Each structure stands twice: as structure tokens, then as C-alpha cells.
Amino acid sequence: MPIGNSGIEVDMTTGLPVDQAPNKRQARQQQIYSQTLQESMAVLQELSNSPVLNLLYGQYSLRIQHIAGQDPECQVIEKLIQDLKYKVELAPRVAQDRLDKALGGQLKQLLNRSPQ
């Protein structure tokens, strides 16, 4: 109820104006959120069955390994590691890290495999 029968309605407990619009906005936001979530789940489902994504993942990993094998600096680093009696395949790990960052958590979980 407006104070003094004029002005805007004020919530007596908070002293803030009473606004009916937040309920409508909140309902609309919830509707948008639900729709977006459904669309995201549909995309994830489609990608989980995507042979193209799996193919790209494998090809990217192979390319990183090839480039690292041709790069003199990578060869020196791998030689130093081997001299320290550690056998480490760096290229697959680098490829995995880069792909993990590019894919994000959801797509990474879909593939859930190491580079080949």
C-alpha cells in the first residue's frame, strides 16, 4: 500500500519498492534457462554419437606427434628426458592438454579417451 495514499508501494519489512515485475522476469529467466539446458543436452547427445569429432580428435593428436617428432627443440627435450632414464611421450600429453582446453569439460567427458 502506498505510504500516505500517494507514490509507490513499499515493502514495510525491507523499505524497498514493491515490484511485481521481478516475478515475471524470474519466470522468464527460468524458462530461458530450461530451454537452453534442453538444447545443450541435445547438442551433447548429438556430439557423443559423432564419428567426425572422434576422427578430428585422433587426427589432431597424430599431427601434434608428427610435428613434435620433426621439431629439433622437441627432440632435444625428449633426448634430455631419456638421458635421465625417463621414457615419456610428450607429444600425446601436449596434444591431450591442448584438446582438453579446446573441448572443455563436457566434450572431454564424451570422448574420455587418451590420444592415439
Gyration radius, rounded = 28 Å
**Strand element count:** 0
Helix content: over 70%
Shape: elongated
Describe the structure using short key phrases.
4 helices; elongated; mainly alpha
Q: What report would you give on this structure?
A:
This protein has four helices and no strands. It has two domains: 1-49, no CATH class; 51-116, no CATH class. With 116 residues, the chain is mainly alpha-helical. The radius of gyration is 28 Å and the shape is elongated.
Q: TL;DR of this structure?
A:
By secondary structure, the protein is mostly helical. 71% of the residues lie in helices and 0% in strands. It has 4 helices and no strands.
Topology:
Elements (H helix, E strand, L loop, with lengths): L20 H28 L2 H20 L1 H12 L6 H22 L5
